[in-house]
Amino acid sequence: MHFIRLFQGLWPEKGHSTLKTLSFFFLPYLFLVLYIRSQSSRDPGSFFFRPSSAYNPSYSVVRLEQADAYIKAAETSDATQINDPKASENPEFCLGIATIVRSGVRYFKSTVGTVLEGLSDSERANIHLILFIAHTDPSQHPAYAEPWLHKLADQVLLYNSSDVDIDHIRSLETDEAKLAGREKALFDYSYLLKACEAVSAPYTIILEDDVVAQDGWYHRTRDALVSVETQMKEIGTPSWLYLRLFYTEEFFGWNAEDWPVYLFYSILTVCFVACSLLGIRHYRPSIRPHLPNNIVTIASVVGSLLLIGLFFAAGRVTMMPTPEGVHQMPKFGCCSQALVFPHSRLNDLVDLFTSKRIGYVDMITEEFANANQEIRWALIPSVMQHVGRKSSKGDQAAIVQSKPKWKAELSDVEKLWNFGFELNDADALHLEHMREVNREHE
C-alpha cells in the first residue's frame, strides 16, 4: 500500500494508470524469473542453485552400469571376446591411473570400466593402459587379486625396489603421514608420469581413480588435441602444458577482473529498456498517454535494475556459458582429475614434482604454469566426471549427503562436480561415437 500511495503521490491524476502501465512490465518479469529459475538450478553460481538435485548423478549412473557389465565380462570371458586388451606398438596415448585403497568404497574398477567400455578395436589399440597399484604391498588393494586387472591393462605398474626407497614409501602409507602432507600422492603421480614417458606415446593422459569417462571420450579427446595443435600454430608458440578433460563450474562465477564486460551489458540493458519503451510509445499512439516521460524514466531505471539483478542472480554459467570446443583455461579450471600432457612436457613435470616433494599436484602445476605463462587448454564440455565423494586423503573429509539442501553441507571433495556432464544423453552419445568409428573405417 505504501508503494501504491507513493506513485499516486507522484502522479495523483494518473496513479492507477501508472500502476497499470507498470504491471505490463512486472507480469512478464515474473514469468522471466520463473523461467530463469528453472534453467539455472544446476548453476553453482546462481541464486537459484538447487544442490538437492544438481549433485544427483544421472548420466554417470548409466556409465557406471555399463562399466560394471564390461568388467564382469572381462572377469568371466576370454579377453579376446571383449577387445584385444593390448596396445599397438606405437600407441598415440599412454593412459595412466594410480589407485590406493579407500575405506568402505571402490571407484577404481568402475573408472577403468568407463574408460574402456565402448572403445572400438582400433581405439583400444591406440591406448597403452597403465594401472598403477600404489601400495608397497599390492595385495592390500582388492583389485590386485582380481582377474580383470591383468586382462585389461597393458601394464600393471608396481613399485620397483631398485628405483624407489621402499621403506620410505611404506612410511608414507600411514594415516598420520597422509594427514601431515601430500608427499606420497605427488611421488605416485611422478612415478606414473615416468612410466608413461618410457612408452614414448605422443600424449599422456593421467586420470585419478575416481572418475567416470563418457561414451566417446576417446574421439572427442583426439579431436580436441587436433584443435590444440592447430591453435598453437596460429598463436605461434610451440609449447603448451596440458589439456583439461575435467573441470568444475564451481569457480565459474562473476569475476571482478571482467567488470568492463559486465558494465557494457548493463549499459546495453538500460538502452534496450529505454528504447523499447520509446519505440512502443512512438509506434502505438493508443499507449502514448500511459507512457509520459516520467514513466519512461522510472520504468527504464527500475526495469533495468531488475533485469540486471536477474542477470547476475541467474549465474555466469547460465547467462554467459563458454562455447563448446577447445579453449584456453588458465584460471578456475580445477583440478587434476583428468589431464592430457604432450610427451615433450613430461620431463618438466617430473622435475617439478620431484623438486617440490610435498604438495598437491594441481596447485603445484598451476603455480608453475602461472610463473612461466604456460598455455593451458580445456575441452568443453567435460568428457569426465568426478564421482569420488569419499576422500583418499586419510581424513575422510567427505561425508556423503544424499540430498544436500545447501552447498555448505558438502565437503570440498564432494563439490568437485561437473554439472553439465549429468545432462548427457546416453543414446545420443553412443550414436555419435558409432558415427566416428564408422568414419574412421571408411
From TrEMBL:
List keywords of the entry alphabetically.
Membrane, Transmembrane, Transmembrane helix
User: Where does the chain cross the membrane?
Assistant: 262-283, 295-314
Residues annotated as coiled-coil are: none
Please give the biological process terms from Gene Ontology that the record holds.
GPI anchor biosynthetic process
PANTHER family, alphabetically? POST-GPI ATTACHMENT TO PROTEINS FACTOR 4, TRANSMEMBRANE PROTEIN 246
> Superkingdom of the source?
Eukaryota
Recorded GO MF terms: glycosyltransferase activity
Originating species: Penicillium frequentans
What is the protein named? Integral membrane protein
**GO CC entries:** Golgi membrane
